[in-house]
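Action item from last meeting closed. Structure (415 res):
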């Protein structure tokens, strides 16, 4: 039996919840009831319930505070269903940030709606391993609103930018970033043949969840499910990240692909679209990512290229850079290697890479430096020397510009 805790400062609400369903038929026992947030936390610590139904407005601690405190102490479980008498998008936004299973309005609550939320919670618990089948199931789920918004954004369905921003504010989606890039992802499992649908749903949902958790360590992002095997990552970039986004995204996605393979034995292919400078342009980035996914013989992380001949030159120069990160590379050297003028190479980078030649070199070197800092006891001056920086001081300066940390602080923070 799963354990359920109820918390509300109104006794009649608690009585109504207890009698609204035959809980035993749902495989649930009510382990306790609480009249305020402090008492609810004590009962969570004592009984470690699987599900908590809580009012938002309670004495001592609100339902949202209770949920966030529980997340910090105990992780994903217990799952929370948020109950309130006032339907406000501000509450929806906060509940979404805490990964609430559902957000229910008391005046609209019926046994069927409550049963749907409980079924959704049980599906998630099953998926969390007691892997998730999907928090978006059920028409009352907040995640369905979230996914619907991004689906409309990708297809360009919003009438104008004001309409787009109005809905994003209502859902608490932050569109104050410098730029956005869409990545279309596909999952393939060697064990898919012969596996039942439920197993694949759990496997791919867990893979998607780990993808979001991994990327979120580096930058803000949104994940939108498309179907069983496909999902979309919308990267939200700061000004610094936008200046050299391609090597940064390649580094993050390659790390994610390795993790997914190691943990779940699932292969992930990533097709990255163009950079969008404003939310209405995200649909263009999405279209470019979908087109990039159809390219033949693409690597696991593939970036959309509009002009294949000229962009091919840029890719060759980038590969040359990646193979020679131990040298002090210059634009003149690279131009001589490929038989073009430095000015022409510089123009190609500006047009087809969205960053300069020097920015790309530094971004690649910093990505390599981060790996060296985290995988071995290498001195900072040794990393500087191996990556062709003129001095350890200059290396540290460039590293902090790209990451916001000194090399030493970065290593201490991430080890």
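Sequence:
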């Amino acid at each position: 039996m799963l354990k359920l805790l109820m918390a509300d400062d109104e006794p009649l609400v608690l009585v109504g919840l207890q009698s609204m369903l035959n809980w035993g038929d749902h495989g649930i026992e009510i382990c306790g009831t609480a009249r305020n947030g402090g008492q609810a936390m004590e009962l969570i610590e004592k009984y470690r319930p699987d599900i908590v139904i809580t009012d938002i407005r309670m004495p001592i601690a609100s339902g949202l505070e209770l949920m966030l405190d529980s997340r910090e102490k105990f992780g994903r479980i217990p799952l929370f269903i948020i109950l309130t008498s006032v339907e406000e998008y501000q509450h929806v936004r906060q509940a979404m940030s805490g990964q609430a299973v559902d957000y229910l309005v008391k005046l609209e609550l019926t046994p069927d709606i409550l049963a749907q939320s409980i079924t959704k919670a049980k599906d998630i618990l099953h998926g969390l391993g007691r892997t998730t089948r999907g928090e978006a199931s059920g028409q009352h789920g907040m995640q369905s609103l979230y996914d619907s918004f991004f689906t409309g954004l990708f297809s360009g369905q919003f009438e104008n930018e004001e309409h787009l921003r109005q809905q994003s504010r209502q859902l608490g989606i932050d569109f104050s970033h410098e730029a956005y890039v869409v990545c279309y992802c596909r999952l393939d499992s060697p064990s898919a043949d012969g596996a039942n649908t439920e197993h694949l749903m759990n496997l791919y949902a867990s893979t998607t969840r780990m993808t979001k958790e991994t990327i979120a360590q580096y930058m803000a992002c949104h994940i939108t499910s498309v179907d069983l095997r496909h999902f979309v990552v919308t990267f939200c970039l700061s000004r610094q990240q936008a200046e050299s986004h391609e090597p940064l995204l390649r580094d993050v996605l390659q790390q994610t692909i390795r993790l997914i393979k190691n943990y779940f034995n699932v292969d992930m292919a990533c097709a990255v679209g163009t950079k969008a400078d404003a939310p209405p342009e995200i649909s263009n980035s999405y279209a470019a990512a979908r087109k990039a996914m159809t390219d033949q013989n693409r690597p696991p992380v593939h970036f959309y290229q509009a002009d294949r001949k000229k962009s091919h030159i840029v890719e060759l120069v980038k590969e040359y850079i990646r193979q020679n990160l131990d040298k002090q590379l210059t634009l003149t050297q690279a131009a001589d290697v490929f038989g073009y003028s430095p000015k022409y190479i510089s123009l190609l980078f500006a047009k087809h890479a969205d960053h300069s030649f020097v920015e790309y070199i530094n971004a690649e070197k910093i990505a390599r430096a981060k790996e060296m800092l985290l995988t071995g006891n290498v001195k900072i001056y040794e990393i500087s020397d191996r990556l062709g920086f003129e001095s350890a001081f200059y290396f540290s300066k460039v590293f902090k510009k790209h990451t916001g940390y000194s090399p030493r602080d970065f290593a201490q923070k991430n080890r």
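Note appended to the action item: Residues 123 and 133 are 6 Å apart (CA to CA).
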